[in-house]
Amino acid sequence: MHSFTILLLCLVATLTLSKVISRPGCGPLCAMYCEYGNVMDSDGCPICQCKESPCEDEQRPLEGYFCGSGPSYRACPSTHHCLIGPNDDFAVCCPRR
Predict the structure, then answer these.
(1) How far apart are CA 87 and CA 56, in angstroms?
(2) Which residue did the predictor score with more confidence, 22 or 94?
(3) Which pTM does this prediction carry?
(4) Is 90 within a domain?
(5) CA spacing 20 to 30 A to 93: which of 11, 14, 16, 29?
(6) Closest CA to 80 of 69, 89, 88, 91
(7) Partner residues linked to 50 by β-bridges
(8) Distance from C-alpha of 76 to C-alpha of 87, rounded to nearest angstrom
(9) CA-CA distances (angstroms) from residue 54 to 8, 37, 65, 82?
(10) Where is the signal peptide (predicted)?
(11) In a domain, 18, yes or no
């Protein structure tokens, strides 16, 4: 059983490393803070332009709602879903598709 586990771990590590190595290198990024992150180029690299919204297709989040953890929590209405940013940077209600 231990041999199988070690073999499986080696296989997963190899596949993970091969995906990281095959990605194109992204150039340096300008030093500006973007609340919702940077716009990505066609290669998946961030460019020096801020995203206007964290929601899909740059749709505007619903104002007055915070759907993350905390005392000011307010659940999104059924027409929207909660989108929480990495590291809890933001928690907004985005329109459902």
Answers:
(1) 19
(2) 94
(3) 0.62
(4) yes
(5) 29
(6) 91
(7) 38
(8) 20
(9) 36, 8, 14, 11
(10) 1-18
(11) no
* Residue type at 42 in one-letter notation: S
Q: Which residues contact 43 (CB under 8 A, 6 or more apart)?
A: 24, 26
Structure tokens that stand for 20 in this block: 């990281």
List the Cα angle 66/38/24 in 5-degree steps: 135
> Residue range 12-36: average pLDDT?
69
Beta bridge partners of 40: 46
Question: Is residue 38 domain-resident?
Answer: yes
Helix (H) and strand (E) counts in the chain = 1, 4
Residues for the chain: how many in total?
Answer: 97
Q: Indicate whether 17 belongs to any domain.
A: no
pLDDT in tens, 50-80: 999 999 999 999 999 999 998 999 999 999 9
Helices of type H across 1-97 = 2-22
